[in-house]
């Protein structure tokens, strides 16, 4: 019934949901890149520090 009354709004819902999921995925990818760089630096330092004690 709503598609008959408001046809333009029914076409954009999936695109808006896809855009939101894409944006969320992009932000998660950026966060994972930063965490990977941080762990690449600190994991060997932690291992070396523990080995030297």
Let me know the largest β-sheet.
none
Residues in β-strands, percent:
under 5%
Task: Compute the CA-based radius of gyration.
Answer: 23 Å
Mean pLDDT: 84
Globally, the shape reads: rod-shaped
Number of domains: 1
Tally the beta strands.
0
**H/E series:** HH
Helical amount: over 70%
- The number of helical segments is 2
Low-pLDDT stretches are: none
**How far is it from the N-terminal to the C-terminal residue, by CA?**
73 Å
Keywords for this structure?
rod-shaped; mainly alpha
Describe this structure in words.
With 53 residues, the protein is mainly alpha-helical. It has one domain (15-52). Helices cover 94% and strands 0% of the residues. The chain is built from two helices and no strands. It has helices spanning 2-5, 7-52. The protein is rod-shaped, with a radius of gyration of 23 Å. The protein starts with a helix and ends with a helix.
Write the layout of secondary structure elements.
Layout: H1 2-5, H2 7-52
Write a compact overview of the structure shown.
This protein is mainly α and about 55 residues long. It has helices spanning about 1-5, 5-50.
